[in-house]
Fold each of these.
Amino acid sequence: MALKIYKPTTPARRFASTVDTSDLSRKKPEKNLITIVKKKAGRNNQGKITVRHRGGGVKRYYRVIDFKRKKYDTDATVVALEYDPNRTAHIALLEYEDGERAYIIAPKGLVVGERIRSSQGLLEIKIGNRLTLAHIPPGVLIHNIELIAGKGGQLVRSAGNAAQLMSFEGGIASVRLPSGEVRIFPPDCAATIGEVGNADHQNIRYGKAGTRRLLGWRPTVRGKAMNPVDHPHGGGEGNVAIGLKHPKTPTGKPALGVRTRKKKKSSNKFILKRR
């Protein structure tokens, strides 16, 4: 999959590029596997903005992704590869032997017509197969990793990402995550073989502000350009320094180079090497 460059018919088109999706299916999403998610524009249940710069965007259905894949030892055929507007990765539509269908994150190299399966025991190390970390040999690239066995994949799900199983000693699996962090996992946590597809997503150039608005992103304003009531950097006449020892977020939390992770965070014991 490569980038698609447009002819410079307008100033915005001159620098715009998108991912070539010619190998994706043009079918509509499965009716049984879509649902409606109400937009929140970055606000929580109190109406306060907790994620800035979000709002608007085109309407979209949410595709229900099977992050668990608990139909063990049953072959599933890849029926279609589809675009998902809710994530950077593409998705694959599976059809099991009993006719049931499900969406999964499409790994790199998966093609229509291929048969994959999920198992809690030994299974062929093949792109798209899902098995527990205890049955994956060291050095294999994996994605969609569970933190808690049976809960479903929570890590390494975005386009182009992959983790690597480093070792399996003493009943504990060591995995190097895309950030470079090395973390330990229980042996019964499941992962999918291969790396997530659509790696060229990071090279997209949107070309114009309107494209970002269609994706649900609103304008970003510098803190220095605001009033004191709106941001710690706000206020002053003309171009003045922020007046603080460290840059701050709108809520006053230190930003840029100051560590804010809690020293007694419960998951610290699972991290062997920091990113």
Note: Helices lie at 11-14, 209-214.
Amino acid sequence: MKKKILVLLLAVVLTALMLPGCGTPAADQGSTSTTTSTGSTTQGISKDTIKVGFIHVSDPSDMGYTYNQDLGTQEMQKALGLRDDQIINKFNVAEGAPCDTAIKELVDAGCNIIFATSFGFEDYMKEAAQEYPDIQFCHATGYQAAASGLPNFHNYFASIYEGRYLAGIAAGLKTQTNKLGYVAAYPYAEVISGYTAFYLGAKSVNPNVTMDIMYTNSWNDPTVESQVAQALIDKGCDVISQHSDSTAPATTAEENGVWQVGYNNDMIPAAPDASLISPRIDWGIYVTYAVQCVIDGTPIPTDWCQGLKEGAVYLSPLNTKIAAPGTQEAIDKASQEIISGDLHVFAGPLTGEGVDASGKTVTINIAAGDYYHEQETASAPSWCYVIPGCTVIE
């Protein structure tokens, strides 16, 4: 139990600030699209003169998270007809002080709106929003915008847990050992929510499945990701999934003759005999919308989150060459049920254990007929509980 507490402490400290209590699900809001907004209409900016900045923790060569984010930038540029010189990318910016430097460089370059795409950039984005009130600052995966009261500071994400649930179905039907492995970046709610949804999807089609989780403590470290994937495989896990940025878990799975579920990108080209499917986010939907708001002089929502229903979350093509029979049909059925509202990923009966901000162990108990309302009152994930069947390994 002590290991679980240590692993989850940081996640709950982060999420406790935006939840009434880590063990209490939010009230039913009826929609996964958050539209709360602050600020007033401005004059707008000519499409021919607007400049847009991006700060990324890696670069598109990771073929994962930043690659997928950059696809969203390209989608926005094409949709709005912006020139190359109107978009400035800052790649390979480490979380910490380098973000502050990148922000200042983008401000000096004349950017009217700046996007930062990694969790650890948020404090710097909030400080910059205070310093530069005429510039819009949009941060992916964070949670502080609503509490900040700043009309030019915004959080955005997508309900990727819906896609992870569907991808888990492919894993649950494929496993032969009934043991899944998960290469997780950090013990943050974003990551815990994702792997819990993945496991619940697998369990929905295979009640006997269990899952081991190991953290890399990095968003993008192919060497460590490969080492962790190998350790999980050595423990008997025959389907490896991930919340990490590279294709290393996929190639490690292929080298060992097991299977893999990716993230952010279709990883079949990297591991054609191992990679089953990947949940993905279409970031272009949001960045196009936010930049258009600046052009039009209309407010950007404080929090923005969309999912399967809106097309912000989707799956890469299923690798039918290696997927278990009936996988696509099972995924399609569950997808339609999520979209219609007949299926809720974190549905009861469901229990889990975490730690509150004071370090006290807390539990959650979702009753049958109820569900945890993930990302319905804020864009950031808030589920931070390890559930039965999942084991965090240090």
Note: The two ends are 12 Å apart (CA to CA).
